[in-house]
Amino acid sequence: MHKKAVMRSPADHAATRATTIIETDLTMLIPNSYVSETAERLALYRRLVDIKDEAELQRFTAEITDRFGPIPQQVTELMEAIRLRWLGQQMGLEKMVLKKGTLIGTFIADQKHGFFESDAFNAVLRAVQAQPRRFKVYEKAGTLRISVQDVKNVHAAKEAMERVVGVREKV
User: Fold this and answer.
1) Is the pLDDT confidence value at 63 over 90?
2) How far apart are CA 133 and CA 131, in angstroms?
3) Which of 13, 158, 164 has its CA nearest to residue 82?
4) Does residue 163 surpass a pLDDT of 90?
5) Other C-beta atoms within 10 Å of 92: how many?
6) pLDDT tens profile 131-157
7) How many CB atoms lie within 10 A of CB 43?
8) Neighbour tally for 138: CB within 10 Å
9) Measured between alpha carbons, how far is residue 133 from residues 31, 115, 136, 150 in Å?
10) Share of residues in the chain with pLDDT > 70 (%)
11) What distance lies between CA 160 and its chain's CA centroid?
12) Residue 6 predicted with pLDDT over 50
C-alpha cells in the first residue's frame, strides 16, 4: 500500500520559499516493525525534518542503526527524500512531486525573481539542453516547472537532480 508523504523544512536557499515540499506515492516511513513505539517513531520523524546537512544525517543513521538494527528500505527512502529536498532547495524548487515514474518540480512563483538569472537556474537549463528526452522545462498555471522522466524511486530522483546541480558545479 502506498502512502502520500509530505516533507517540509526550512529552506537554506535564498530564492526559495520558507519551505520545500516533497509529495510522493512511494512508501517512505519508519515501519512499526522497526520502531514499535509510536512516540519514539514520531520523535524520530521530528528529528529527521530538522536535519540540515549530510554529516547530521549520517550521525542520525548511525544512531538508529545502533539502537534499532539494520535500516529497512522504507527508512532509506525517507533519508534519500531528505537529500532530494536539499537538492530541490538548491535548484529553487518550492515543490517536488514524484508520482508514476515522473518527478515534477515547481520553481518559485515570482518569475521576475533574480533566481531566474542565477547560475543555479542556468544549470537547470543546461541539463535540459543536454538531455531533452529526460528533462523538460515548461509553464503551467503561471508557474515554471521541470519534469524528469523515468524516475522509479526517490534515489533515482536524487541522482537526476544531482546531475542538474553537478552541471552547475562544473561552471
Assistant:
1) yes
2) 6
3) 158
4) no
5) 25
6) 888 899 999 988 999 999 999 999 999
7) 12
8) 11
9) 36, 25, 7, 10
10) 87
11) 11
12) no
